[in-house]
């Protein structure tokens, strides 16, 4: 919170009093004329002029403040814009617990006309938030931690683990306040804050959220979005943290490191392969993953993932086309090992979720060697995985 300093100006006035002499013979002497001097008219006029100037200055300042307020954009999209193919990188200061080189990145995974799904990747955690632009507010309608995969939650029925939270609300003016979920209270506490960052200086609005012992202050710049955040807990010994925008990387994909589990050269075991998925805004992970599975030998030439998502029961639903079975010439042992490699890969992609349901074109998996019941759960198994040591 910016600290404002006020100066008190003390003014002293010198009072002049006139004394009138007394005479013992008051009744014998004629009455004396009043010798009190009159204030010259020109001084009175000067005083009035100064008053008029002061009042005029006050009115000018008030008009300037009103003009500045009127110049603040009332378009929510200006303060929280829909972004594409751009990565925001933030550095964090956690006082004595600061980690060297610790950064948080923000990437727009999916968006529509009025909604946007962001991934926020930090230290050992990735959170997905969905923001919806409503008529008079921007509302966080979905939030899920430990989401290392890239499902489009805009198109699924997966419920948000937390309640909706309005993070910005019209009008954009100082003093505007509103209540959120979980006893959170929001207020626009300033509309003209200059925030200095390594990528530039931004005139920003300041939105303060209080929730119990927590105070969170977010600074939004027009056309950019979040440029700085301060978090403090009203607890003894608790150091405040500050998150500041340090990089804006345009026209870049979101990069996801994943592990493939293809067969070894003898077809007797599985090996590990570290690969990268490069995903731009509104690109799902299915097509590039399909390509990687083909390149690794786990998929045949025309095998394709039809759909893949985490359902409300915490099971990864993986549906593959019939070509996966029709083009395969593997025996039961090899087929079983290939399926295990696929299950291991998908499980690791989703952050070690241990349940995968495999289907073919929407129906149960049935080949000449192996049959799975509908929604039968398969689990990752790393017993036959060869861990190659780094040279």
From TrEMBL:
Spans traversing the lipid bilayer: none
Domain of life where this protein originates: Bacteria
Annotated stretches, region: Disordered: 22-71
Signal peptide segment: 1-21
Domain GerMN span(s) in chain numbering: 286-369
Pfam family, one: Germane
InterPro entries documented for this protein: GerMN
Keywords: Signal
Protein name: Sporulation and spore germination protein
Lineage of source species: Bacteria, Bacillati, Bacillota, Bacilli, Lactobacillales
């Amino acid at each position: 919170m910016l600290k404002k300093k006020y100066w008190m100006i003390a003014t002293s006035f010198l009072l002049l009093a006139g004394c009138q002499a007394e005479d013992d013979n008051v009744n014998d002497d004629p009455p004396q004329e009043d010798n009190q001097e009159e204030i010259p008219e020109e001084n009175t006029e000067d005083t009035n002029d100064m008053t008029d100037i002061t009042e005029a200055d006050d009115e000018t300042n008030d008009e300037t403040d009103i003009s500045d307020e009127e110049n603040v954009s009332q378009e929510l999209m200006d303060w929280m814009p829909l972004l594409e193919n751009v990565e925001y990188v933030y550095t964090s200061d956690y006082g004595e617990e600061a980690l060297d080189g610790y950064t948080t990145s923000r990437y727009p995974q999916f968006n529509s006309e009025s909604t946007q799904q962001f991934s926020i990747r930090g230290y050992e955690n990735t959170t997905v938030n969905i923001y919806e632009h409503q008529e008079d507010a921007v509302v966080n309608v979905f939030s899920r931690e430990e989401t290392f995969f890239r499902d489009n939650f805009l198109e699924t029925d997966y419920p948000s683990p937390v309640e909706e939270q309005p993070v910005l609300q019209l009008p954009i003016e100082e003093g505007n306040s509103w209540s959120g979920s979980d006893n959170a209270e929001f207020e626009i506490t300033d509309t003209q804050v200059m925030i200095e960052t390594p990528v530039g200086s931004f005139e920003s609005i300041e939105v303060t959220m209080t929730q119990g012992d927590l105070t969170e202050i977010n600074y939004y710049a027009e056309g950019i979005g979040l440029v700085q955040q301060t978090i403090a807990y009203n607890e003894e010994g608790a150091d405040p943290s500050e998150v500041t925008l340090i990089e804006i990387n345009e026209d870049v994909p979101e990069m996801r490191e994943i592990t493939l589990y293809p067969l070894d050269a003898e077809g007797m075991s599985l090996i590990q392969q570290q690969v990268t998925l490069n995903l731009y805004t509104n690109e799902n992970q299915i097509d590039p993953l399909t390509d990687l599975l083909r390149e690794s030998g786990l998929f045949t030439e025309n095998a394709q993932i039809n759909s893949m998502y985490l359902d409300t029961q915490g099971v990864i639903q993986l549906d593959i086309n019939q070509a996966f079975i029709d083009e395969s010439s593997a025996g039961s042992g090899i087929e079983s090992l290939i399926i295990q490699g696929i299950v291991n890969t998908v499980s690791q992609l989703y952050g070690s979720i241990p349940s995968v349901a495999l289907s073919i074109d929407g129906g149960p998996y049935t080949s000449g060697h192996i049959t799975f019941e509908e929604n039968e759960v398969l689990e990752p198994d790393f017993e036959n995985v060869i861990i190659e040591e780094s040279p």
